[in-house]
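quick one, 108 residues, struct below
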Amino acid sequence: MDEDFWEITAELRAGDDVEAREHARAVVAAAHRRATFADELRALSPGDVVTLVALDGVPITGRILRVGQDVVRVGEVLDPVGAARRRVARVHDVRIDAVVRLVREPGR
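---
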């Protein structure tokens, strides 16, 4: 009888361990999915051609020049495709919390 008791107890504990591991994996996966829009902006690489739309609704198409903790520096280009995107017309420093939309260059 004692042997059966310990056997059943061991099976129940093994089930708890598996359940606890599954719960821990779910918590870690949820934390990874909680990347914010600001994190997405901070992940941009210099040289990427994007269109940013700020709170004022004006789109800025340009090359990412620098990404800081609070500001994205965008070099506005005249044409987002071809050789014309190499020449920067104006430079804009846009606060990350002011960006409401990000459109990446097609094909990237």
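The longest helix spans residues 2-33.
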